[in-house]
Design brief:
This protein is of the alpha/beta class and about 550 residues long. It has a domain at about 50-145 and about 240-420: Alkaline Phosphatase, subunit A. Helices cover about 20% and strands about 20% of the residues. The protein is built from ten helices and 19 strands. Helix 4 runs parallel beside helix 5. The longest helix has 22 residues, at about 295-315. The radius of gyration is 22 Å and the shape is globular. Belongs to the sulfatase family.
């Protein structure tokens, strides 16, 4: 078969997406869209959403019995609830996945088309967009965020001082006025209480912000160049100690749960951990415990703190009607040193190919565990394909309030699966994946089509590497027969490729992947502006 390169031009203009493509090799075909099913549950549950940072699918023992990292508390969480084996983040990197979790919308519909934000970036989510927090707040929930934000907020700027620089250098922060409140942060998006830092733990500025106020003005510059404990140079507050940040956030979360459990009102806590992302800094009493490397030690430390948090939930008497989610924002980072871990028999991505940043499964397939004693039977496993964008629709289903057309455009409720793992009422049929450089993939059933010849990220073959021109322009894998994505079948199943291509076009054009009125995708913003093959010109 002659393989023809397809080129798309996608322009967000006048509320329409104009798609022109050359040498189309397929007939257009459209799949039907599902319908929403409401489920009434009576008393609303408390909701605690724990998001790890750069934790691989194979790093939890329950998901990878051959793995070498011991995670007894997360294993117990899985045995006490339901574990999803085919769960995916909406992106293979931090910021876009966090956008999708809170908004129920794919990040590439936002101004962020590729890459991530920095600790200085402006707010990505506008106040007008519904988030899980603003949605639940309207339904009577008390809402809280603790941890790593990494979705941008607007720092106060000193007048007359150059404010150039994106935030990758210590010099970029000279114009920030740390004595004044931030704007367009978590409190403006529905969180009654917010405490955290702006970017990843290796991104300056290193300050805590509580309810829009910097808790302590930074008065020094810090950096670290150690292999595992590396972070960029930048302004640092005296009360911001990198080694203590993860324990500190858990302690804040535990205190919050203890206090809010005394209030006769449901609550939602979004606990966004900065770990085990770099800098990899296990506490002294955890160093060497995994017998693998510092990353393994760090994962074990996180597992222990999750256990402590779960114990507090039990002790406060709210366990039965508290829904706890534990997942990760993408796959394990190569900064954890895959070769070192593999030499000791541990595979952070388990059987899957790639890692953080990649379009391959290791980039976005993550552990996803849910416990809710009142509603979820113990010891269940689901192989349904779900996405982290699905949580907004799930919350809407729990409180029995339908989402509006401009809310959660890529969110499907997983509540039917939580209540009955073999339920056929879960409506998602297709999921779209996205890599750090903005490459797309689409998955339906066993079939996954990748719209680039490479990893789209950091593993081999890297984008623009020398051997790329000798590869087929697209990739097609049957994940049932080939979960490791070793055998590219592109060109051998033309009908399947055609259907997946048309689905991709339809979901881009419609501004949504759920039923409802066509929505606008946001205009150009951050990210790459030049693409080839199924790559986008903004």
């Amino acid at each position: 078969m002659r393989i023809v390169t397809i080129k798309f031009v996608i322009a967000f203009k006048n509320a329409k997406i104009v798609i022109s493509f050359i040498a189309l090799f397929c007939n257009l075909y459209c799949f039907g869209q599902p319908q929403k099913t409401d489920v009434s549950l009576g008393q609303y549950p408390n909701i605690i959403y724990i998001l790890a940072d750069d934790l691989g699918y194979g790093d939890i023992h329950a998901y990878n019995p051959d793995g070498k990292i011991r995670t007894p508390n997360l294993d117990k969480l899985a045995s006490d609830g339901i574990m999803f084996t085919d769960a995916h983040t909406s992106s293979a990197v931090c910021t876009p996945t966090r956008y999708g979790i809170l908004t129920g919308r794919y990040n590439w519909r936002s101004p962020l088309k590729s890459g991530v934000l920095t600790g200085k970036s402006k707010a990505l989510i506008p106040k007008e967009r519904t988030t899980i927090a603003s949605f639940l707040k309207k339904e009577g929930y008390t809402t809280a965020f603790i941890g790593k934000w990494h979705l941008g907020w607007d720092w106060a700027i000193k007048s007359g001082i150059d404010n150039t620089g994106e935030g990758w250098s210590a010099q970029d922060f000279k114009a920030i006025d740390f004595t004044k409140e931030i704007a367009n942060g978590p409190n403006d998006l529905g969180f009654d209480y917010a405490y955290g830092h702006s970017g990843s733990l290796d991104m300056a500025p290193y300050v805590y912000v509580e309810n829009a106020r910097i808790t302590q003005v930074p008065d020094k510059l810090t950096s670290n160049n150690l292999k595992y404990g590396w972070w960029r140079e930048g302004p640092t507050s005296n009360n911001f100690i990198h080694e203590d940040v993860t324990p500190h956030f858990f302690e804040k979360a535990i205190q919050y749960i203890q206090d809010i459990s005394k209030v006769d009102k449901p609550f939602m806590l979004y606990l966004a951990l900065p770990s085990p992302h770099t800098p990899i800094l296990p506490s002294e009493n955890w160093q060497g415990k995994s017998k693998i490397n510092p990353y393994g030690d760090f994962v074990m430390m996180i597992d222990d703190y999750v256990g402590k948090l779960l114990k507090v939930i039990e002790n406060t008497g709210i366990e039965n009607n508290t829904l706890v989610v534990f997942t990760s924002d993408n796959g394990c980072s190569p900064a954890a040193d895959f070769n070192e871990m593999i030499a000791k028999g541990h595979y952070p991505s388990s059987i899957y190919r790639g890692h953080k940043a990649d379009i391959f499964e290791g980039g976005h397939r993550v552990p996803f565990i849910v416990k809710w004693p009142d509603k979820i039977k113990k010891g269940n496993t689901s192989d349904k394909t779900i996405c982290t964008t699905d949580f907004l629709a799930t919350c809407a289903d729990i409180v029995n309030i339908p989402l509006k057309d401009n809310e959660g455009e890529d969110s499907y409720s997983i509540l039917p699966i939580l209540l009955k793992p073999n339920s056929n009422n879960y409506q998602r049929e297709v999921i779209i994946h996205h890599s750090i450089n903005g490459s797309f993939a689409i998955r339906k059933g066993a079939w996954k089509m990748i719209f680039c010849p490479d990893s789209g990220g950091w593993s081999h073959p890297e984008p623009n590497s020398e051997d790329i021109e000798n590869l087929p322009p697209f990739q097609l894998y049957n994940l049932v027969d080939d979960p490791g994505e070793k055998h590219n079948l592109f060109g051998k199943h033309l009908k399947i490729s055609n259907k997946l291509l048309q689905l991709m076009i339809t979901y881009i054009e419609n501004g949504r992947s759920t039923p409802g009125k066509i929505q606008k995708n946001d205009p150009e913003g951050y990210g790459s502006k030049t693409w080839s093959q199924l790559k986008v010109f903004y």
